[in-house]
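Input chain follows. Return structure tokens only.
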Amino acid sequence: MKRLSIEDLWSLEEYAKRRPQFRAEAIARKSLRRIQLGTHVTLQFEDELTVRYQVQEMLRIERTFEQDGIQAELDAYNPLLPDGTNLKATMMIEYPDEAERKIALANLVGIENCVWIRCGGIEVTAIADEDLDRSTEFKTSAVHFLRFECPPGFSSVLKRGGPLIAGISHARYDETTAVPKPIAEALSVDLA
């Protein structure tokens, strides 16, 4: 998947006109690329449209129109684009109550290294190298950026409709889910 450039984006004025329709499209796409793992963890798999939406929204919110600022946003978000050999996801650990969230994040240190997907008997563990060292030895972050490097056997089975399973194998958060077929099909498009 090619990286986004300034030429791929709309000006703030143009985005204001297109935003309602583009936002609806992005929300629909995100729903087809979201996996819930238990009650408190969501994986949001990114692609060109979801990343472009995030960049456009950040530029809108921050009222950024200068090229250096736009390029800085692109540099921050482009690493979230899959490149044909991998899937990339934003992992969100969600606890609405602040006190409960603080305790959970302390108990879930290292969770970003315990996330996996499996298809055709091939298991791929997430790599948190897009994570920017958000965690410490005392707590994990509520948001992590994960990369799943998928070998050719994995991608070919997934593209043929093989069942996709996702999970977390952490001592304090152990969850597994069968990924619905429409989501698995949407993710298979990211792989060469």
